[in-house]
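ENTRY TYPE: paired fold submission
RECORD: A
CONTENT: sequence, then structure tokens
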Amino acid sequence: MDQLGTRVLVTGASGFIGRCLCQKLTDQGFAVTAMLRRPQTGPWRHVLESDLARGEVDPRALDGVDTIFHLAGKAHTRAKNAIENAEYEAVHVHGTRSLLRAARQAGVRACVFLSSVKAMGEGGVEVWDESTPCSPQNTYGVTKLAAERVVLEEMALSCPVVLRPTLVYGVGSKGNLDLMIRAVRKGYFPAIAFPPNSRSMIHVQDVVQACLLAATHPAACGQVYILTDGGEYSTNEMLAWIHETVGKKPGPAVPYAALRVGAALGNMLERLGIHAPLNEDRLAKLAGSARYSSAKIRRELGFDPDWDLRRGIQEMVEGMMRQ
């Protein structure tokens, strides 16, 4: 850890991944400064109050910082109007540019930017790696890719690194996997035979491991890495493991075609400004494929994930039972 220095800054520190990263850094003896929009307690030593989307970062606030872990971002949802599109631009692009401009003036050595595979596109049945041409399909992905270019080219520090995680899970996550587990526990999730699919995923603690490797390994500088746990999972497997772990049998059978009709109706409702529990985007995440390779970071940095999804589901269920 010699190259990491003693003082680090984490943006997005209060988020799901950010808190896990700050805890790991603090446990290892680093002086962690959390950049937050408003002060709150957490596993960090100092708080730098700043809203990246609405102001410029003062370079003096970064004096003594060696490494920035840039995790701040607007959550991935479908932008519904020009205002929401502008929010993605402000947070991901303007915010990253402001942060890196101040970091360059303060002499910060490294920036590890947590991007997303959505910067590449939506993925599918073909396995994508870092050589796959990027063609993002929504505002979230477009602005994440633009932020990557700020980090690697426009405002590059001496050691910039971009990480593109696949779907991140673990205790405290708020995505589809969490919703599925809660629905099965309550007996709300029907028995559905989803079409065959394969999805790449990664546990939050393995994302943290990758962040630390990216900040300390000389070979990482200037590179882009995709993060997966190396496995591929189908929705049917996920549901079987969830039912097994919570000790419940599947609910009443519902044909998959009914979900497609419900998703189409959900899209219609959301165009009218009415929230729907299911739409075509959510169904695609449940039933579609999104396959990625993490061979590059394994080969170059020695990345070796500790978690797989079956173990992660057990951990998430146990975490819910303690709530």
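RECORD: B
CONTENT: sequence, then structure tokens
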Amino acid sequence: MSEIAFIALGANLGDRAANLSAARAALSMVAGVELLAASSVEETVPLGTLVQGPYLNQMVAVATTLEPHALLLRLQRIERQLGRIRTQRWGARTIDLDIVRFGERSLQSPTLVLPHPGLADRAFWLREVAELDQLLGVAL
């Protein structure tokens, strides 16, 4: 049985639009994951206090038969394949993939919290979730 997960994509290094596109393509190739819908892309200022360029952000909805931690491992693999190097929290990145929502699940582990704890504080994520809910026909 599959569940719908919302995954946030963000990039502020290199060809940001191409990085988002490559991430969407890589997601669609993961066994047990089907890309259902994608929000609009928007440019946002970086979070945190580090000086860096603006981000392009987008959120996608996927149907997945994977468990949350298994999906997270696949997302981290895609990040590495697309040149992400984790050196500094809140630092610039070629791609960032975050599970924002995973069905109706709540989860707290050392590596994954669901729903994502930053969801309520990021207006762009709230807009993207609302857009995906509308695209998927979810009652608001």
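NOTES ON RECORD B: The longest helix spans residues 68-81. The chain has a mean pLDDT of 91.
STATUS: closed
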